[in-house]
Amino acid sequence: MVGWKQRWVGWRNGIISSPAFQSWASRFPLTRPVSRVRARRLFDIIAGFTYSQTLFACVESGIVARLQQGAAASAELGTLARLGPDATRRLLRAAAALGLIERVGDDLWMLGEQGVALVGNPGAIAMIRHHHLLYADLADPLSLLRGERTEPGALAGYWPYALGDGSEGEDQAAVSPYSQLMAASQPMVADQVVHAWRFDRHRRMLDVGGGAGAFIAAVAKVAPRLDFGLFDLPAVTAIGARQLGEQGIKVNPHPGDFRNDAIPTGYDLITLIRILHDHDDELAQALLIKVRASLKPGDTLLIAEPMAGTSGAEAMADAYFGFYLLAMGSGRARTPQEIGAMLTRAGFASWRERPTGLPIVTRVIAATA
After folding, report:
1. How far is it, in rounded angstroms, from Cα 186 to Cα 274?
2. d(CA 17, CA 288)
3. What is the 3-state secondary structure (H, E, C) of 254-276?
């Protein structure tokens, strides 16, 4: 039986796909604005790859960093990027069209509104530089979706823990690149989380998969009396303990692998910051069971990560993270309800979502053991 929604979508699609209707809608005064917006959105999807490559070129060449210091002429920017005059002009015009930069004189450029927002977010710049690996893996998206590749892709090699057995965590050189990326991108997440939860109500906090300790450092600013623990692969934990010590933050290091080891006990708050969505359902569920076993009744688990079903951020979860995690070889974005069901199966007494200012960056779930 055909439902009302199917009938409506079928009728709508038949109308919109008609060349005669498209031509009429583009000329009729009442429908012309809508027609133009939809045409622009469609073209943005078609041309999106060139937009991201323009962004990458401006960041990687140093143009964004230079304009952060103030206005510059085309010749200076071209020299910085090692580009000829014509290529420089082409790149600057493309960046201006995207709002990254803007012309403020005959041949003088400054950051545009999008560019200013970008330089205020070092984590985003780190991800832009990192995305060349994702571009390589998405050169043939159907091959990726079909599972036809015989060798791990670029992202899988970058995040060895996603497919490894934990042995990669013994080598600091192997884990240093992704530890640095996580540390650079963590502040924008940490800022949302520390405003969503009262950390000073706890005595001891264990950050599981905490990497170089960037999240612990953020929490230490709002709850300096907390006793902190860091659980991660041995080489990662060593990096984190050293860097936190350099900041004057005392941390109890717990080297281990949650795939094979128990979660340390004695903490009344455990945090999983951008951890669950990196792993497939079986491993994520097993981790939650281990976390529950390490907590006493009434203790808290705090989960923070981008989640599916976020209003206004559907493309982030299903398009960006959908393909990113597929290329990485592990994990998926989940809705709060899916995570809640996993928490219930793990034995948690209750869970609830805590609002954040930018749910597109992260959403937060607090679960009570």
Report:
1. 9
2. 47
3. EECCCCCCCCCCCCCEEEEECCH
What single string gives the DSSP state of each residue in 290-350? HHHHHSPTT-EEEEEE--TT-TT-HIIIIIIIHHHHHHHTS-----HHHHHHHHHHHT-SE
Q: What is the DSSP letter of 280?
A: -
Give the burial class of 137: count Cβ atoms within 10 A of its Cβ; 0-12 exposed, 13-18 middle, 19 or more buried: buried
- Decide: helix, strand or coil at residue 126: helix
- List, for residues 266-314, the tens digit of each pLDDT value: 999 999 999 999 899 999 999 999 999 999 999 999 999 999 988 888 8
Cα–Cα distance, 315 to 77 (Å, whole number): 33
Please give the model's pTM, rounded to 2 decimal places. 0.82
**Cα diameter, the chain:** 69
Residue 330: CB partners within 8 Å, gap ≥ 6? 159, 162, 163, 278, 279, 280, 283
Q: Rounded to the nearest 10 degrees, what angle do helices 19-27 and 4-16 cross at?
A: 70
Q: How far apart are CA 250 and CA 204, in angstroms?
A: 12
Spatial CA neighbour of 80 closest among 98, 96, 59: 59
**Strand-by-strand arrangement of the 72-73 sheet:** 72-73, 108-111, 101-105
Contact between residue 206 and residue 231 where contact means Cβ atoms under 8 Å apart: yes
The answer to whether the CB of 89 falls within 8 A of the CB of 45 is no
